[in-house]
Amino acid sequence: MVDTLTPVLTANWGAERSWTLASYEEHGGYAGLRTALGMAPDDVITAVKDSGLRGRGGAGFPTGMKWGFIPQDNPKPKYLVVNADESEPGTCKDIPLMMASPHTLVEGVIISSYAIRANKAFIYIRGEVLHVIRRVQAAVAEAYAAGHLGTDIHGSGYDLDIVVHAGAGAYICGEETALLEGLEGRRGQPRLRPPFPAVAGLYASPTVINNVESIASVPAIVANGADWFASMGTEKSKGFGIFSLSGHVTRPGQYEAPLGITLRELIDLAGGMRAGHELKFWTPGGSSTPLLTAEHLDLPLDFEGMAAAGTMLGTRALQLFDETTCVVRAVLRWTEFYKHESCGKCTPCREGTWWLVQTLARLEKGEGREEDLDLLLDQCDNILGRSFCALGDGATSPISSSIKFFRDEYLAHLTHGGCPFDPAASTVFATAGAQA
Amino acid sequence: MTLSQTTLDEMREIAGRYPEARSGLLPMLHLVQSTEGRVTPEGIEACAEILDISAAEVSGVATFYTMYKRRPVGDYHVGVCTNTLCAVMGGDQIFERLKDHLDVGNDETTEDGSITLEHVECNAACDYAPVMMVNWEFMDNMTPESAVSLVDDLRAGKEVTSTRGPRLCTWREAERVLAGFPDGRVDEGPGAGPASLVGLQIAQERGWSAPAVKASGATGTEPTGDGAQAASRTDTSVEAESAAVEAESGSDESAAEKKEAN
């Protein structure tokens, strides 16, 4: 029986000067690299395939399989690009990982690059996290000084350089092909696929793009074995992951557990919802994953469990809202975000998100009509699946799911002539009077 | 105002980090902001000349990303997260209070040039909501009152430290780090804030951990005695998989990969 919480990635976060090479190596760091360099690259890919690791950036695509798609007979250079553009609303796992233990990521980058035979890797970090960028820059510099990077790494004959690249503020660059555009010095607009990045990615060369947490999981898999990793989690969702609890819960924070844990277990560990309140709605994996309610507390938080409930595991960004929160206000704010962040390339998303905001804002002010709910769903239908990337799809998730579960609350705005909630009551600094 | 020779040299140095020089454009624009206080027409021209692309192409990039500013930014860029979770937890009230207290609107700078106020999107610190950012350093668990004293301290020239990071530098100094020139503050501040550690602490209290590693056969794969043969065998299966993905493109991988936006 595996324990309820299984700190692996988070295990050294509380250590003294955890971000330094000395501290990381004291906790066993870079053992995975030594193991990997003694293996054939294809055997590293096999180990990651056998572990069952699936992408931790939201999509859940098998990581080892993605690596296997790199055509090794292609004469062009191969590249590894780490997606450290963590921006999905509610998602807050990669940023603390890179702040506390940047060497976990760097070691993962070296092993993963070795596996796909890349000699150049890039870590694309969103620009709005200055101290995190400092920590990753310093970790890369320390790794060079220790001989973990550069030419002929530890006498293996293998060469690798890492470039730390700061973005400049664009949610869309979390989409992998838009990220590549940003990394090539262009506007971050997604590319048409195929060709997939594995065939023609960065500089039209074979490229693997992985999320921070996916790459950071690799050293432990290589050091401890695929079977060890696969002994955690559920049948098709193997291993551990960081679950990020935020919102109206007593102890918000990061909880690393095997995939398949339930929200009820996590909320219990977090000391329950804030005193005197109860869960109303939540996102399983960021704002782009359809909302769930208190009915769904006992579902396994794994890829299959969430798909069966009509939503997605996403990034395990569990944003919890209690009964003081107006779902219409919450959804309007997310929709304004998608409108702002739409890159403008595809008409359904660019125009559609604008129309969604118009319609929702009118409803929120109590100025709409009941038919506007059908209008919203029709607009969603005209956006979903009709653009190059999934940003527009994500914009429809909170709307359609909230209408499904909270139709009456939308209508209450019409009968009330505006929002029936007191926004002060939902704040962390709400007084007892404001909550009443 | 023309850029200094040092700045131009550093811009070339940035471009030289990449296999293709144009990849340096984003950090080069950060560097322009660090010396000019914004993206200036001269900065755009300099990027264009070094990268051998048109000024229009550089402008197109500079106007796409929200961190690039065309108007002068104050010494302190003060961001208030008003995405849903922070807004609900109090970010809306904080932003309103600061607009009123500083007498500026969104994306405006105080008359003394010290503070530029902007509402920002989710900054990946939701477990510390409501969150503010000063020059892109975390200011966690804010209230309207603590936000007011924060900006008052900044305007009074007091030294302010991030709640989960170092002493605050100026916005221009921050932009220089983003361009890839470290400032030596990496060892300041904690490794992790309290919320980042809650799960770990519970696990330690209850003696929970990941399963122990079995003594032998750690990697689950044979050592590399027969590397070449193993490689060729795997390559065959890789080709088969690649072909499968290409053949059914649009179904499996595209649907899944599209969600990487998450």
Automatic annotation (TrEMBL), chain A:
SUPFAM superfamilies recorded: Nqo1 FMN-binding domain-like, Nqo1 middle domain-like, Nqo1C-terminal domain-like
Cofactor entry: [4Fe-4S] cluster; FMN
Keyword NAD: yes
MF terms (GO), sorted A to Z: NADH dehydrogenase (quinone) (non-electrogenic) activity
Reaction(s) catalysed by this chain's protein: a quinone + NADH + 5 H(+)(in) = a quinol + NAD(+) + 4 H(+)(out)
Keywords noted in UniProt: 4Fe-4S, Flavoprotein, FMN, Iron, Iron-sulfur, Metal-binding, NAD, Oxidoreductase, Quinone, Translocase
Domain NADH-ubiquinone oxidoreductase 51kDa subunit iron-sulphur binding span(s) in chain numbering: 328-373
EC class of the enzyme, as a word: translocase
UniProt signal peptide: none
InterPro entries per UniProt: ComplexI_51kDa_subunit, NADH-UbQ_OxRdtase_51kDa_CS, NADH-UbQ_OxRdtase_suF, Nuo51_FMN-bd, Nuo51_FMN-bd_sf, Nuop51_4Fe4S-bd, Nuop51_4Fe4S-bd_sf, Soluble_ligand-bd
Plastid recorded as keyword: no
Ranges in coiled-coil conformation: none
PROSITE patterns named in the record: COMPLEX1_51K_2
UniProt-listed Enzyme Commission number(s): 7.1.1.-
Xref: Pfam families: Complex1_51K (PF01512), NADH_4Fe-4S (PF10589), SLBB (PF10531)
NCBIfam families from the UniProt entry: nuoF_fam, PRK13596.1
Protein task: NDH-1 shuttles electrons from NADH, via FMN and iron-sulfur (Fe-S) centers, to quinones in the respiratory chain.
Family according to the record: Belongs to the complex I 51 kDa subunit family.
Full protein name: NADH-quinone oxidoreductase subunit F
Top-level taxonomy: Bacteria, Bacillati, Actinomycetota, Actinomycetes, Propionibacteriales
TrEMBL record, chain B:
The protein's required cofactors: [2Fe-2S] cluster
Enzyme class: oxidoreductase
Keyword field: 2Fe-2S, Iron, Iron-sulfur, Metal-binding, Oxidoreductase
Keyword Nucleus: no
Region of interest (Disordered), residue spans: 210-262
GO molecular function: NADH dehydrogenase (quinone) (non-electrogenic) activity
Keyword Iron: yes
Ranges of compositional bias, category Low complexity: 237-248
Enzyme Commission identifier(s): 1.6.5.9
InterPro entries (UniProt xref): NuoE-like, NuoE_dom, NuoE_N, Thioredoxin-like_sf
Assigned protein family: Belongs to the complex I 24 kDa subunit family.
Descriptive protein name: NADH-quinone oxidoreductase subunit NuoE
